[in-house]
Amino acid sequence: MTAYLKLDHIDKIFTRGAATTEVLKDINLTIEKGEYVSIIGHSGCGKSTLLNIIAGLTNATIGGVLLENREVNSPGPDRAVVFQNHSLLPWLTVYENVKLGVDKVFARTKSRAERDAWVMHNLNLVQMAHARDKRPSEISGGMKQRVGIARALAMEPKVLLLDEPFGALDALTRAHLQDSVMALHQKLGNTILMITHDVDEAVLLSDRIVMMTNGPSARIGEVLEVPLARPRKRLDLATNATYLKCRQRVLEFLYERHRFVEAA
Amino acid sequence: MNMPATKIEVEIAAPAPIAAPVVAMTLRRPPRTETYARMARELAVRVIPPLVVIALLTLVWELVCRRAGSALPPPSKVFKDTKELIFDPFFDHGGIDKGLFWHLSASLQRVALGYSLSAIAGIALGVLVGQSVWAMRGLDPLFQVLRTIPPLAWLPLSLAAFRDGQPSAIFVIFITSIWPIIINTAVGIRNIPQDYRNVAAVVQLNPLEFFAKVMIPAAAPYIFTGLRIGIGLSWLAIIAAEMLIGGVGIGFFIWDAWNSSHISEIILALFYVGIVGFVLDRLIAGLGKIVTRGTAQN
Q1: Does B162 contact A at CB distance below 8 Å?
Q2: Is the ipTM value over 0.90, yes or no?
Q3: pTM of model > 0.80
C-alpha cells in the first residue's frame, strides 16, 4: 500500500491549567491516493480533533501528519476542509466565497479569466452555478453545503477533508448530497477523508471505515474494508448482502463493544 | 411486498394531470391604486401618533406658560420671538451675530473632524485589543478608567495643551466618542466565529487580507453599534464644550442667548440640537445598515 496521507503515532493531550486530558492515543493510519476513508465514532471521541490535526488547525502533541512523505503542521489549501456548518462568509456571494480560495491558490498560475472560469466550473460541478450572485442567507442549507464543497474542490486539494458534512441537513437533502459527493469522487478521483457518525453514510460512501473507540484516549478500534463495487446505487445496496454485513459490523462495534457512555 | 408497492405507484400517477393547470396559473398583480393606498395607510400609522402627542404637549405647554409672570414663554411667544431666526437662518452680520445655519454648521464641522479621528483611532485600537490578548490585558484597565471621565473634565487640560479653543473642542469630541468605538470593536473582533478563522487559515489569507475580507465585515455590526453611540456622545460633548470655549457654534449660541435673557432663542436652539442629534444618529444607523447588509443574519 502506498501511503499518500499518513497519520504517524498521533497523540493529542489538552492541557488546561493543571488538568490534562488525553483525547487521542496512538493514531496510525495510511490512506492511498484516490481512496475514500470515513472515520466514525461516538460524539466526543475526538474524531473532529483528529480532522483538525490533519487540516493543521491544531497540532498533535506527539506524532505528525505526512502528506506525500512531507510533514504538514499548518493549514493549507492542499487539505481543503468542508466544515459541518458550511462556514460560508455571509457578506460574500456564492461566487465570491468560492473565488476567495481560488484567488489565493491560483494567484500566479491562472489568469483572471481562467480563475473566473474555474470558479464557475466548480459551481457547475455541484449544480450551484445558477445561484452565483446569491448570498448564503438566500439559499437553503443543502445549497450552502454544496457551495462549501465547491469552495474546497476549487482549491484542488490533495486530500479533501469532510467534517460531518451532511450532519446539519435533513434526511432527503442528505441523501441527495451524498449521491453528489459519490458522483464527484467517481469523476475527479479525489482522496477523501470524512468524519461522520452515520453508519449508513459511512458504508455507502467509503472504501474503508475507521472506527474509533470512546474517549478519553480514543484509539482506532477497527478498520473495515467495504468491498462494494462502484458506482454504488443506494437502492440496490439496501438488499445487498455485503452492504448489510458491513453495516452490521459497524453497528456491532459502535453499540455493543464500544457503547457510548453518557457520563464520559 | 409487491402489492403495496403497486398501490403507491397508482397514487403517485393519479394527481399528475390535475397539477398541470395549477402550475399554469399566473399571479395577478394588485392594481397600482391599491398599492398606493396601502402605502399611505402604513405611513399614516407611523406619522399620526407622534403628531397627536406633539400637538397635545404643545397645548399643555401653551396652557401652563400662558399665565402672566410665568418663567418660561409659551410656544406662541417662542414662535413670535424667533420668527426671524427661523425664516432667515443664513444671515451673517459678522462676529458671532450669524444665522442658526452657521452656528449649526460650525458645530457640525467640529464634530465631523473630532468624530472621524476617533472613528479611525477607535477602530484601530479596538482591533488591536480584540486581536491581541496582551494588548487587552495592558490597555483594557486603562480604557475602563479613562472612559468614565466626563467630557468637560478634559477641556481645561486640552486648553492648556493646545492653547486654543478650536483644537480643544475637537479633542474633547475625540476623547468622548472614542471609548464606545474601541470597546465595541474589540468585542466584535473577539466574537468572530472560529469557523471564519478556520476558513481563512485553510485558504491561507495573509493578515492584511484577513483584516479586510473577514475581520472588518464580521465585526461590522459591533463596530457600527460603537460608532452610533459615539456620534451621540460627540454631539452631547460639543454643545457643552462650545458653551465654555465661545465663538461660533450652537453651544455658545445657547449660552449667549441665556446671558441676554432670550429664553425663546434657547428653546428654538434646543429644538434644532435635538433634530440634528436625531439625524446624526439615523445617518450612522443607516450607513451601518447598508454596510452590514447580509452580515447580521446567517
Answers
A1: no
A2: no
A3: no
